[in-house]
Amino acid sequence: MPLTVKSRRKRSTRIAVTVLSGVLPVLLGFAILYMQAGRALQQSTEQTADEALRQFNLMLDNTAEAARVLLPLAGNSCNDATLALREQVTRRPFVRSTNLVYDNNLYCSSLFGEHQEKVNPGDYTQGQLWLMNGNPVTPNTALLVYRLSDEKKGALTTLDGYHLSNVLRLIGRQTSLLLQVGNHWLAADGKVRDGALPVLPVAQSVRVSKQYAFTVAAGFPEGETWRYMSSEYPPLFSLLIFFGVVSGSIGHILQKRASSPSVELQRALEAGEFIPYFQPVVHGDTKKWSGAEVLMRWSHPKEGLVRPDLFIPFAEHSGLIVPMTRSLMQQTAALLAPISASFDSPFHIGINITASHCQDLELVEDCRTFLGAFAPDSISLVLELTERELIEPTALTHQLFEQLHGLGVMIAIDDFGTGHSSLGYLRQFNVDFLKIDQSFVAMIGADALSRHILDSIIELSAKLDLGIVAEGVETQEQSDYLTAHNVNFLQGYLFGRPMPGADFINALSHH
């Protein structure tokens, strides 16, 4: 990385580091692709099993309805009931035949008319369904029989195995799909087999009908994950190898570089390589954009875009964070001030400050210059106190915050709830907002303890009459929860990722 300082290493160590730099991304990439393929296959089988369950339920709804209509006729003369039996076959989709039973004796059939055959209720799973391997009319052909009984009266309706295997074949084109009724199961080939369902080795999903006595299982054979990867990911494999070569080359080059962090940061500052990125903040209730947090990124000429966690600590330690923030504010003003007159209401702009900013009153002048660049009353500037370094409550800091409030600048505590000084800041400084750390937001719906802490922070902000911003909102469930708890503002990937100035201005025109 840009701030890595070269140390003396043996040749064997440098070679090992270079090889590891190239191999580890490839191995990690393969592992990620393997997990992604597993998730994709699991999702496929779940969708397939759900759809098959739905289709079988619909088919059995028709057979069950036919049985309900015919049940009152059980015990009547077959001559009187034959027309009604055949009418149900004609009217009900998927119904192949209908039969009347009295005292466990099948005496009337839509196929044969008067007919005598004993009915064994024990053949039917839960007294309801029997998956047969054919009958005298169609031997060795699957048949699903639905039984409905009321004391001695009974009605049997049958569903042709062709329809069953057709569903298994069409819905499960990419998967192995099985239908189980009791101790019998049916595959897409239309053959009924005895015994328990076989285990499908990859991504097996099982669904049990809540309405009828059957189970559906979907899955893939052994080795399907690798087959899926080989068919879907070949370009990514090439890309992984490319990244491995690039990563190894970078590891080799970085070991040869010699540059102190402060010198490199100073060079980058003078070259204007620290640029603003903007992440939108939305109203908790309407989800309309209310402002943005300005985030610093390092556009390195060789390394590309560098994440802030890789250079901000060095900047704070070296004391360069103050001029870097000043440059960030100047660039932000140059980007947004020309369009500020079009803002319908004050647009909140959040900028991070640290303990280094609180050692003199220059920050007041920086904020005054920043606000002066915008149309009057078009923006609200919010300074967000980070906690990487402790801000001491001295007379100077109290004077600084008082003058900032006099300019209309608001103060927020960033990542509230994670730092050791958050509650101390509330007591010692006059703040306007709390920003809930994303670690608490991420636990919504998953971790009860973190949710209780989150609720306590929200309740605390309400009691202190403070505004509240929730960071790291990534799911609709999190958004709904925070909105329901009257959180004022939301920020996270659900509403927008950090973006360059030009992209942000373009997106802002749509919000």
What does this protein look like?
The protein has helices at residues 11-70, 78-91, 161-171, 224-232, 234-254, 261-270, 312-318, 321-336, 362-372, 395-406, 422-428, 438-441, 448-463, 476-484, 501-508, and strands at residues 95-102, 105-109, 113-118, 129-134, 139-150, 153-160, 176-181, 184-186, 192-194, 202-208, 215-220, 274-283, 289-300, 304-306, 347-353, 379-385, 410-416, 433-436, 467-470, 489-491, 499-500. The chain has 511 residues and is α+β, with helices and mostly antiparallel strands. Among the domains are: 59-162, Beta-Lactamase (2-Layer Sandwich), CATH 3.30.450; 273-508, TIM Barrel (Alpha-Beta Barrel). Strands 12-13-15-16-17-18-19-20 form an 8-stranded mixed barrel, surrounded by 5 helices. α1 runs antiparallel to α3 (161-171) and α1 (11-70) packs antiparallel against α5. It is elongated.
What's the alpha carbon Rg, rounded to whole Å? 35 Å
Largest sheet: 8 strands, mixed, barrel
Give the CA-based shape: elongated
For the record, give the distance between the C-alpha atoms at the N and C termini, rounded to a whole number.
37 Å
Strands ordered across the widest β-sheet:
12-13-15-16-17-18-19-20
- Content-based structural category: alpha+beta
CATH architecture of the domain at 273-508: Alpha-Beta Barrel
Please count the beta strands (DSSP E, at least 2 residues each).
Answer: 21
**CATH overall fold name of the domain at 273-508:** TIM Barrel
Average pLDDT metric: 85
CATH classification class of the domain at 273-508: Alpha Beta
What is the CATH superfamily of the domain at 273-508? EAL domain
> Which stretches are poorly predicted, pLDDT < 50 over at least 5 residues?
5-9
> Share of helix among residues?
40-55%
Oligomer: single chain
